[in-house]
Design goal:
With about 550 residues, the chain is α+β, with helices and mostly antiparallel strands. The chain contains 18 helices and 17 strands. The chain has a nine-stranded mixed sheet. A three-stranded antiparallel sheet has the order 1-10-9, with no helix packed on it. A three-stranded antiparallel sheet has the order 6-5-16, with no helix packed on it. Helix 15 crosses helix 18 and helix 16 packs antiparallel against helix 17.
Length: about 550
């Protein structure tokens, strides 16, 4: 049965002709510079942006079938008869997906509809076997929420808050994903993989409350962090677990909202910002040139840095919505309404609420208050997913390590070594315990900070020796003995009489140059404080 279903699921659609995409690019004959893409809107033009975000629910099985969910599985290897839309198959709602949707809606301050409905949305895609998608158009799972987020100045190493924003959440609905079409341009054909068909999605729809690409990108990043903290979606945009459709329009101040264009399937927050900025400038060019805008669907070509027209925008009647006849209304309960003896058989909103973890904004505030680190460091720790690592490293009650020093080690030194090797945080070979040992050796003066960084690099390269063994073999122990440093300083002063003479004439800054020579002679193992004191004593004594 499985092999026959798999064969039925494979479609090879030969294209009789290749359709050329209408680029509508006469206003942008030359590619824009980075300065052009980020410039503010001219004159009294203003932009409006609303987002539709499709977040794949972290679930072992699909929304209405028992098929496994796995990224990069062999094509058409995770397809059930229902996913292939074979006759006689019926959908069965996945409870985990409902609970994930409820938890996400609560985190977004939404009103949960105790009764919601499923609908069929009809359209033809080669990778949509049934010819329709099961979604929630009439009465979704949740409505009327909001999300507060900050927009940061990403151009600075220390992230500064430019402004705080709030976007209204129109609705959150459950729906199933389509399959995936693989386009073979050389042979003029499309191959269809149905592994993704039926995977559970949350579609989160915002009101058009954002005014530019920076706000939209910041909102996407904050939502991504929320979903990851809830564990309802992994937020991996590069793998398609989170995809963004941006509805973009421009209008002059005081006028009604303009004609919108929808840019589909944007797969990174950076591209969200670039696509919106380009599209707003394009629309303004059209309108200022006495042209007219049409509602259309576009996509963002990240290589060219521009949006390209795909097709006219479908209207609601084009989808021929109808109630899903094979699914009853989805009924949710509370503690007060749960039938006796049915506690384990229903989804209880109050029980789901109890699973709510600490959300990113609360985590940022807590890190500042509890550990005394800067707000910029708290933003970076949360944004990089390093909070648990940082707190394990600090563990003030047990180890007494300085939180600000720990934040610097994690965000500067650890990430630097990680990025050098193009590693994700999950691939980082240095545990918080091991980095803590390096910090401790630096704190007590056994090694210098620069030596600690060298040891960290060795650990990233797979050195399995103990830290003390590394220090002994490499002769990296910090030299703190004044007598030993005195002999080294004498040699340096003899080699650089011109610097000594300059110091005698009042140029005290030459001490820094002499300090550098001592560090070079000791392979950066001389204690800076002791070295500075010894050098000054000898210079003053001569």
């Amino acid at each position: 049965m499985a092999s026959s279903v798999q064969k039925l699921c494979v479609e090879r659609i030969f294209l009789s002709s290749r359709r050329s995409l209408c680029t509508c690019n006469r206003f942008y004959a030359k590619s824009q510079t980075k300065k052009d893409r980020t410039r503010p809107l001219p004159g009294d033009w203003q932009g409006r942006v609303g987002l539709e975000i499709h977040a794949q629910i972290s679930s072992n099985s699909k929304l209405f079938s028992g098929s496994q969910v796995q990224f990069s599985a062999p094509p058409n290897s995770l397809v059930s008869p229902l996913d292939a839309s074979l006759p006689g198959t019926l959908p069965v709602l996945n409870r985990r997906c409902v609970e994930a949707g409820v938890l996400t809606a609560l985190a977004l301050n939404c009103h949960i509809n105790r009764r919601s409905l499923f609908d069929r949305k009809h359209y033809f895609y080669a990778d949509l076997p049934a010819g329709y998608q099961i979604t929630q158009q009439r009465l979704p799972l949740a409505v009327d929420g909001h999300l507060t987020f900050d927009v940061y100045d990403e151009s600075r190493s220390q992230r500064q808050v430019l402004k705080s924003c709030q976007v209204r959440i129109k609705q959150l609905q459950l729906e199933q994903d389509s399959g995936k079409s693989l386009h073979d341009q050389d042979n003029g054909e499309v191959l269809v993989d149905l592994n993704r068909a039926g995977v559970a999605l949350m579609e989160i729809v915002t009101e058009p409350d954002m005014v530019d690409g920076a706000e939209a990108a910041a909102m996407v990043k904050e939502l991504q962090l929320i979903l990851q903290s809830l564990r309802t979606c992994d937020g991996n945009m590069s793998e398609g677990s989170m995809r963004v459709d941006a509805n973009i329009s421009v209008n002059r101040s005081g006028e009604e909202l303009g004609t919108r264009a929808e840019v589909k399937n944007i797969n990174s927050a950076k591209f969200v910002q670039k696509a919106i900025e380009y599209e707003m400038q394009r629309q303004i060019q059209v309108l200022e040139g006495a042209g007219e805008l049409e509602e259309e669907t576009r996509y963002f070509d990240w290589k060219a840095g521009k949006t390209i027209s795909l097709r006219d925008k479908e209207q609601r009647h084009d989808y021929r919505y109808m109630p899903e006849p094979n699914l009853p209304p989805l009924i949710l309960y509370t503690d007060a309404t749960t039938p006796h003896g049915m506690e384990d058989a229903v989804v209880n909103i109050d029980r789901v609420r109890e699973q709510m973890p600490e959300l990113p904004d609360a985590t940022r505030r807590r890190l500042v208050e509890e550990y005394g680190i800067s707000f910029q460091h708290s933003v970076a720790l949360v944004g990089e997913g390093l909070v648990e690592y940082f707190e394990s490293l600090v563990d003030v009650k047990v180890k007494g390590r300085d939180p600000r020093s720990a934040a610097s080690w994690v965000l500067t030194d650890l990430l630097e070594e990680q990025h050098k090797r193009s590693l994700t945080f999950q691939e980082c070979p240095v545990t918080a315990s091991k980095l803590g040992e390096i910090m401790d050796l630096v704190a007590v003066g056994t090694i210098s900070k620069s030596t600690g960084k060298k040891i960290l690099g060795l650990l990233f390269d797979g050195d399995n020796r103990g830290l003390l063994q590394i220090i002994e073999v490499e002769q990296w122990a910090q030299i703190r003995d004044a007598e030993t440093l005195g002999r080294i300083c004498d040699e340096i002063l003899e080699k650089h009489p011109q610097l000594v003479e300059a110091y005698r004439k009042g140029n005290k800054k030459v001490v820094n140059r002499l300090m550098g020579e001592v560090q070079k002679a000791t392979n950066k193992c001389a204690d800076p404080t002791v070295t500075s004191r010894v050098l000054r004593q000898k210079l003053e004594g001569q």
